[in-house]
Amino acid sequence: xxxxxxxxxxxxxxxxxxxxxxxxxxxxxxxxxxxxxxxxxxxxxxxxxxxxxxxxxxxxxxxxxxxxxxxxxxxxxxxxxxxxxxxxxxxxxxxxxxxxxxxxxxxxxxxxxxxxxxxxxxxxxxxxxxxxxxxxxxxxxxxxxxxxxxxxxxxxxxxxxxxxxxxxxxxxxxxxxxxxxxxxxxxxxxxxxxxxxxxxxxxxxxxxxxxxxxxxxxxxxxxxxxxxxxxxxxxxxxxxxxxxxxxxxxxxxxxxxxxxxxxxxxxxxxxxxxxxxxxxxxxxxxxxxxxxxxxxxxxxxxxxxxxxxxxxxxxxxxxxxxxxxxxxxxxxxxxxxxxxxxxxxxxxxxxxxxxxxxxxxxxxxxxxxxxxxxxxxxxxxxxxxxxxxxxxxxxxxxxxxxxxxxxxxxxxxxxxxxxxxxxxxxxxxxxxxxxxxxxxxxxxxxxxxxxxxxxxxxxxxxxxxxxxxxxxxxxxxxxxxxxxxxxxxxxxxxxxxxxxxxxxxxxxxxxxxxxxxxxxxxxxxxxxxxxxxxxxxxxxxxxxxxxxxxxxxxxxxxxxxxxxxxxxxxxxxxxxxxxxxxxxxxxxxxxxxxxxxxxxxxxxxxx
Amino acid sequence: xxxxxxxxxxxxxxxxxxxxxxxxxxxxxxxxxxxxxxxxxxxxxxxxxxxxxxxxxxxxxxxxxxxxxxxxxxxxxxxxxxxxxxxxxxxxxxxxxxxxxxxxxxxxxxxxxxxxxxxxxxxxxxxxxxxxxxxxxxxxxxxxxxxxxxxxxxxxxxxxxxxxxxxxxxxxxxxxxxxxxxxxxxxxxxxxxxxxxxxxxxxxxxxxxxxxxxxxxxxxxxxxxxxxxxxxxxxxxxxxxxxxxxxxxxxx
Lengths: 607, 252
Prior knowledge:
The complex is a heterodimer of chains A (about 600) and B (about 250). With about 600 residues, chain A is of the alpha+beta class. Chain A has seven helices and 33 strands. In chain A, the strands form seven sheets. Chain A has a six-stranded mixed beta sheet, with no helix packed on it. In chain A, strands 24-23-26-31-28-29 form a six-stranded mixed beta sheet. Chain A is globular, with a radius of gyration of 23 Å. Chain B is mainly beta and about 250 residues long. At the A-B interface, helix 1, strand 7, helix 2, helix 4 and strand 24 of A face helix 1 and strand 9 of B. Chain B: One of its GO terms (cellular component) is cell outer membrane. Chain B: Keywords: Signal. Chain B: One of its GO terms (biological process) is intracellular copper ion homeostasis.
């Protein structure tokens, strides 16, 4: 019975491939099938399901890894960092056999994939993990398409290179037109032992921050803004026991930022032909705290997909990608010259870069890192910036550029309304010693591109720009609301939800199977947190109703209040956490349990 | 449309076949809140001041170290502070072992015991205390450490230390430091008068070669007050001592 079905599926799959290959042949006679989605000019493995059982074999092991000439030890898959590109097709039943050649337990989590929870790959939540020397068989039906990724969910392995891209081709025609495509896996690499990185942050606040406001900057500020206002600004931060330069916990002081496994000096290469539409599938596979700001000077990017889900195309010049998010963009280079793909870390302590060029080995100009931004009082959940001058300056600037293009006009409007907004006030619960601060005022911020962005005339993507191409299935309004606060204490390096680390909670957060609920997240900290919910979509409420974009990871800005509608269709126990590895390990983690009326978490029902 | 329906039916068939397979009969582990490193025990040791003090001939070697072993909110905390003269056989050391519990985001309350030893060429003496204190980061980023002591003889005293660190460059730090102590009862044997005993002011300039290792230079001024000053003068000492210091701050 099942064999027959598989045969049928295979024939259908084959026919579709034949069709799409023919289409490609029309568009570009040169490029062979899957080489389209390789890692650029270098030869890298692309894994596709083999045989009647659609098998892919993966082996996890230690390996040497040379980054910009320096040798380190990594954890790779099939001898590769990032791990090989896995290419599946919607509708396949796949069998992924994962062999562990490490001397510790490992796992693979398929990030953003809807699947039976026992296949989700979180040790201690969905299964026991993969013991050394053993092989685990992940078996699941592929029910979606788009750009995703996969990575370890064990300890700090992800920091050592245990991550890779996963592309699922749609069963039907892809609404996105492109001639050529590349996955662009961004990540952060350290030659240090990641456990030491964590320990240093626990013992010394801001260990890796070498961009503090020092005496020189103080006097510069005095020159610019006068002594009184500078003192007031510095003292207010001191009074709060916070630092205006608290941007990322782990910085370029130890990190080399990678693009498809290449350091900035090794310049990852991608090729194009004039007039082609090139699809770049950006994945932020960073383990530390790195959010990247991505731009390709000289090229406009059209965002077509976010977190694997197609969105209405938006043309922009720059976007911020939080950890674990994916952004697919289309670029159409019209000149035969190299363009630099430039991904600055949010704190400007470093960058990843590569080149997209008509020929191999070409190099575009590498832009300067922009000045590191400073936290504002708005990030602290305060209504007005003490530094009123700055704020006026910024919005004036936006208005200057406002009439230059449509995108910016939208953006300045957004800021104007942001100033008039009525924020949600924080409740009386201050969340205890695990929370150094609360966001007294909680802002929408969906129209704001984030710290350090949007005030230099560039047209930057904001969450409000995202509108799903396909409507969401569930039209019901929310039946109930679950509110969680992101909390932390940088001084003690404790991270938590509602002030409670994971070890302090007694049980899972209960979701009811197929209910419709509103998940509201409030960031009480002054840093960005990429919050990932396994096993179900978060339909981010940005005013597009049934077309609200589906996300697996929401990057929350400081003092931001975001809500998403959720329908838990798959029963089971699902991880829910901050995707900054160190924050997750220090307690910003929960288990969401989806049970039916009888309290059963087993037995799938995909209807 | 027919195409979509066909896909749907086929997918459903595949799923039904699939969910009946043995792989999915697999049970997940029971809920556990012990799968992250958020309840980890850390060990920390820091010699905040380990220095040579060049003053009016006494040139003591000073150690001010502390550390902990424990989890985020509950720790065993130890402190060691003392000095030994280099010119003659004389010195004193103050050791504390404390249970430290977080009471707010930035402050720990600490309770435990303190043991003092003092020695010179001829003699040595010691005494014990019960301690209750408060340590943490105050508004405006002052590191504060205040404690109340009750000696085994029932004498009550208190001390307060405050430090402030500011970056001059990204690796060069300035650190002003203030310390004072007071006693309710006079304890002549230990050279302690009643009332304020002393005020110590210092400024250190450290260069962080690594965050963990920073040599420094600085100045230190210790002014003994009231009866305590009288006791010191009585022994032929100076109530006011100014010194240049050089040392290293290190931690692991």
